[in-house]
């Protein structure tokens, strides 16, 4: 049976860590620093409000010891006895409202955490999050695993931590691509910080597959710019993460400009653009010389190129496709499935062959 966690001790240790951090910034100044001590007293009072009705014996003992320290700090901050009495009366009268406010904040943070996790592409974790937080853990991991093809599996591990203010947040997550055909060849990456909260589960999978994705970022002039990103499997940092290659607009890969030359409707081009930016390979069926032909389109921003193939991997002359003015998609685009992807080699359409893409 799992040993119950002393939540009061857990929160005090978190505060202690924060206090040590401030001590490094302001050596020897915290002992008599009134703003800091007022904030600490408020924190100790919140602990009493949150866990005062606990039935955990360890927590009850910790709270009794905490009460002694809280009283000593109160006397130091408010040496006037009448002032202390007035403050205690105020604390007693406002305790129900402050307790309700704390519980509302905690519930709001829990809802916000669940929304964040869902937005990142991780579904069905609400009950697991509730269970872990109910146990009062300071940090916990949520594992997820599922197959994306007959031989490939994606494993994720979400790292959720509790901050000093009591809020839980998704710190980062580990994404691993496992291929049964190459059991010793596992691609793994930690997505955290700024990029981690913008790269969702599906995008992480595409990056580990070697695909490129596009993210909207704020440029130097404050406007939104599209930056393509791709993992470099030949280079790792000290944490074992693959280096992320970035291709900003100045690099010269303009997807919209290249798609403008394809004989598709604007609606189809928009669908293709959204799919390619997510790292997908998109299939479009067109009429070529009166026959329906499947085209499979993907990107390589590093080579400033689009890639195209048919179902058998046979090369299609790009000039012929452009010259066929009557070519119109006969079917809407769709993401390539594993079965679709059994086609042969990828054909590159490059400027080196005198073709404008």
Please give a structural write-up.
There is one protein chain. It is elongated and about 95 Å long. The protein starts with 6 loop residues before the first helix and ends in an 8-residue tail after the last strand. The chain has helices at 7-25, 34-51, 57-77, 81-119, 126-134, 193-196, 201-208, 255-259, 266-277, 318-323, and strands at 139-147, 152-162, 168-179, 187-192, 213-218, 224-236, 242-247, 282-288, 291-300, 305-309, 329-335, 347-349. The chain is 39% helix and 27% strand. The chain is built from 10 helices and 12 strands. Among the domains are: 7-116, no CATH class; 255-353, no CATH class. The longest helix has 39 residues, at 81-119. Mean pLDDT is 84; it is low at 338-357. The chain has 357 residues and is an alpha+beta fold. The strands form 3 sheets. It has a 5-stranded antiparallel β-sheet with strand order 11-8-9-10-12, with helices on one face. A 4-stranded antiparallel β-sheet has the order 1-2-3-4. Strands 5-6-7 form a 3-stranded antiparallel β-sheet, covered by helices on one side. Helix 2 runs antiparallel to helix 3 (57-77).
Main pleated sheet: 5 strands, antiparallel
Strand order of the largest sheet: 11-8-9-10-12
Structural class by SSE content? alpha+beta
Distinct helical segment count = 10
Query: Which descriptor suits the 3D outline?
Result: elongated
The overall strand count is: 12
Alpha-carbon Rg, integer:
29 Å
Mean pLDDT: 84
Give the N-to-C terminal Cα separation: 64 Å
Low-confidence stretches: 338-357
The helix/strand order is HHHHHEEEEHHEEEHHEEEHEE
Beta-strand content estimate: 25-35%
Roughly how much helix do the residues carry, as a percent range? 25-40%
């Amino acid at each position: 049976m799992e040993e119950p966690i002393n939540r009061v001790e857990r929160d005090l240790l978190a505060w202690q860590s924060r206090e040590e951090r401030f001590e490094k910034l302001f050596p020897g100044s915290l002992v008599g620093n009134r703003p800091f001590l007022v904030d600490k007293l408020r924190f100790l009072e919140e602990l009493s409000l949150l866990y005062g009705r606990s039935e955990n014996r360890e927590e009850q003992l910790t709270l009794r010891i905490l009460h002694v320290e809280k009283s000593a700090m109160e006397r130091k901050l408010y040496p006037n006895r009448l002032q202390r009495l007035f403050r205690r009366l105020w604390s007693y009268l406002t305790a129900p409202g402050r307790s309700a406010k704390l519980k509302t904040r905690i519930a709001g943070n829990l809802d916000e955490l669940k929304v964040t996790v869902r937005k990142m592409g991780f579904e069905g974790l609400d009950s697991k999050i509730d269970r872990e937080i109910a146990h009062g853990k300071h940090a916990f991991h949520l594992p997820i695993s599922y197959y994306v093809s007959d031989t490939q599996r994606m494993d994720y591990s979400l790292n959720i931590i509790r901050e000093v203010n009591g809020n839980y947040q998704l710190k980062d997550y580990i994404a691993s691509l496992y291929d049964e055909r190459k059991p010793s060849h596992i691609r793994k990456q930690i997505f955290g910080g700024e990029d981690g909260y913008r790269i969702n589960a599906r995008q992480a999978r595409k990056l580990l597959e070697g695909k490129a994705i596009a993210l909207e970022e704020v440029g130097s002039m404050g406007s939104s710019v599209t930056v393509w990103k791709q993992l470099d499997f030949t280079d790792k940092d000290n944490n074992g993460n693959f280096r992320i290659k970035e291709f900003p607009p100045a690099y010269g890969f303009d997807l919209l400009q290249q798609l403008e030359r394809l004989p598709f409707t604007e609606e189809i081009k928009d669908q293709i653009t959204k799919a390619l930016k997510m790292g997908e390979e998109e299939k479009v069926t067109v009429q070529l010389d009166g026959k329906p032909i499947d085209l499979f389109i993907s990107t390589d921003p590093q080579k400033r190129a689009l890639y195209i193939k048919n179902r058998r991997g046979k090369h299609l002359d790009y000039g012929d496709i452009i010259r066929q003015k009557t070519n119109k998609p006969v079917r809407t685009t769709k993401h390539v499935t594993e079965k679709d992807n059994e086609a042969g080699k990828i054909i590159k359409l490059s400027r080196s062959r005198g073709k404008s893409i």
